Amino acid sequence: MDEYRDLLVNKALEARENAYCPYSGYSVGAAVMGENGTVYTGCNVENASYGMTVCAERVALFKMVSEGCRKFTAIAVATADDGTDGVPCLACRQVMSELRAAGEVPVYDCDPSGRVFRHTLDELAPLPFTLSDGGEDADE
Prior knowledge:
By secondary structure, the protein is an alpha+beta fold. It has a single domain, classed as 3-Layer(aba) Sandwich (Cytidine Deaminase, domain 2), CATH 3.40.140.10. It contains four helices and five strands; from the N terminus they run αββαβαββα. Residues 135-140 have low confidence and may be disordered.
């Protein structure tokens, strides 16, 4: 999947330009490589009711699903140029875990200065929440 790194990073940086973040001023863009080979992008969309804000990662993933693709193979997230490794939040990691393709899924975090950090989804979300078949408790 690293062959898609530069493409996804560039698309995430482009998507970041569309962020709607009048409250935090912290713009984020994301680009997801669907299992079908299509790149889906998203940006964060804030709301005066902060709990209604949606992260760029989830916007891109939900767009992927709404367009008929159910799994992704890689994702890039472009954050602000503040020197930090802008890994996805826990809510985004959970959604990513649900929609991941089999195998290693790279997660690239980048900023406008060109720094790119590489993680895997397994590193960022080692124990995601899952439902067992039929919704029954796995311990029973």
